[in-house]
UniProtKB/TrEMBL annotation:
Metalloprotease TldD/E C-terminal domain span: 219-441
Species per Swiss-Prot/TrEMBL record: Pseudomonas reidholzensis
Protein name per UniProt: Zn-dependent protease
Keywords, in A-Z order: Hydrolase, Protease
Superkingdom as given in the UniProt entry: Bacteria
An example Gene Ontology molecular-function term: metallopeptidase activity
GO BP, one annotated term: proteolysis
Keyword Hydrolase among UniProt keywords: yes
Signal peptide range in chain numbering: none
InterPro entries according to UniProt: Metalloprtase-TldD/E_C, TldD/PmbA_sf
Length: 443
């Protein structure tokens, strides 16, 4: 019987402990995946394959100095342990050349964490047959990625964490003959063919509206509904230092005014880092046990994300944040807007499925700019009239989720990271849609 990823990690850990010298401390991280990828064009398979990979991150600490090295693993215990010993030797040569790190902070607790989220995924042939049956005549372009993702961590102090979660992510667009497109996604851990068919049906409905003449709007403020995918782009921007203890301590956070008490958001807004029950491991890349963190409660700033380094530098209590102090499982509490009431409550205004190319136009003011893209529609009296030409918005978070926020949807969407850069990611967001009284379009 072949060794499991956890057994391989434990074998690597045992070899490392045996090779440790007096006065040395270590942390050992582990990442692995066994993923099936299928790329579609015109609803036909254009590329299919499997990726099985693993890597380790070794950090060596001695006399206040630290250095780390990442190396690829091949699955052969003897070869992997040799790579470990080579990395250890290089780090030993490097450490004396480094200065003492004044903010080095190691968790010396022997915490234990184990999470095994195994869910049966459909056979790829089943997915292909479903796509052929439901979208065979459509210009569907996308990628299906599925399989287990593993993360491990161990330290010389006895801490040990293992996380394995199986998930799928089907990210696709439906293209109209005129070149316009509807973007959609279905992701999770338990595949439901009926749920996928429903997502596809909604996308096909929007695709039909893209055939109508495009409507051009003048710059101004418009009533708008932001679908969960559009909200995900805004929430993603908040990960750029919004909740970071380091960014807040140095005055570089877009939410500086919120955390200083000079501004607040709508009482409808409550953000949390909801690690429990998510696809993310219950431990950070620095080896801290993660916990759920209430970031914003009823529009007011509460806690921040504090890494081990920030805790040492700014005299704060670490709460399991990764070194970059961005949310890994951001959750926005739902509101009361029922899905079937969205268009009626919107009345006349913009239905925005996606936002694109966001950036800060004024970071201290939390002012964001970006483009509408894919299925953005003009609605009159609760009825979709047609697609809207691509527009740029420029507005502050204190408007969008503050004075101009009217309601949030009762149902939320789980959005998993589609990033495959280097490896599949475990990040996610759980977000409702938002009804906005006024969204500023600039051109």
């Amino acid at each position: 019987m072949s060794a499991t990823p956890q057994h391989r990690f434990e074998a690597l850990l045992q070899a490392l402990r045996s090779a440790l010298q007096d006065g040395e401390q270590f942390t050992l991280g582990y990442s692995a995946e066994a993923s099936q990828f299928i790329r579609f064009n015109h609803a036909k398979v254009r590329q299919a394959g499997a990726v099985s990979q693993a890597s380790a991150q070794l950090r060596l600490v001695r006399e206040g100095r630290q250095a780390e090295q990442q190396f690829t693993l091949c699955g052969d215990d003897a070869l992997d342990q040799q790579r470990l010993h080579d990395a250890l030797a290089q780090l030993r040569q490097t450490l004396p050349l480094l200065a003492v790190d004044p903010y080095l902070s190691l968790d010396d607790s022997a915490w234990q964490s184990h999470s095994q989220q195994d869910h049966a995924l459909p056979d790829p042939a089943e997915v292909l047959a479903l796509v052929e049956r439901e979208a065979g005549q459509l210009d569907l372009v996308g990628i299906y990625a599925a399989g287990p993702i593993c993360r491990g961590f161990a330290s010389s102090f006895g801490a040990f964490g293992w996380h394995q979660a199986t998930s799928f992510n089907f990210d696709w667009s439906l293209f109209h003959a005129n070149g316009e497109a509807v973007k959609a996604n279905y992701a999770g851990q338990a595949w439901d063919a009926a749920a996928f068919v429903e997502r596809l049906r909604l996308a096909r409905e929007q695709l039909a509206f893209l055939g109508r003449p495009a409507i051009s709007l003048k710059p101004g403020s418009y009533r708008a509904y932001l679908a969960p995918a559009a909200m995900d782009e805004i929430a993603g921007m908040l990960g750029w230092g919004g909740f970071s203890a380091q960014a807040l301590a140095t005055g570089n956070s877009p939410l500086q005014r919120l955390y200083s008490g000079d501004a607040q958001l709508s009482p409808l807004v409550s953000f949390s880092e909801q690690v429990s029950g998510s696809l993310s491991p219950a431990f950070s890349d620095e080896g801290l046990a993660r916990r759920d963190v209430r970031l914003i409660g009823e529009g007011r700033a509460l806690d921040r994300l504090v890494s081990a380094r920030s805790a040492a530098e700014f005299a704060q209590l670490a709460n399991g944040a990764d070194s970059y102090e961005a949310p890994c499982a951001l959750s926005l509490a739902p509101g009361s807007l029922a899905p079937e009431q969205i268009l009626a409550r919107l009345g006349t205004g913009l239905y925005i499925s996606n936002l694109w190319y966001l950036n800060y136009s004024d970071l201290p003011a939390a002012r964001m700019t970006g483009l509408t893209r894919f299925a953005t529609f003009w609605v009159e009296q609760g009825q979709i009239q047609g697609p809207v030409s691509t527009m740029r918005f420029d507005d502050t978070l204190y408007n969008l989720l503050g004075s101009q926020l009217e309601d949030l949807t009762r149902e939320r969407e789980l959005i998993l990271s589609t990033s495959t850069y280097g490896q599949r990611q475990t990040g996610s967001s759980h977000l409702p849609g938002a009804l906005i009284k006024g969204l500023t379009l600039t051109l």
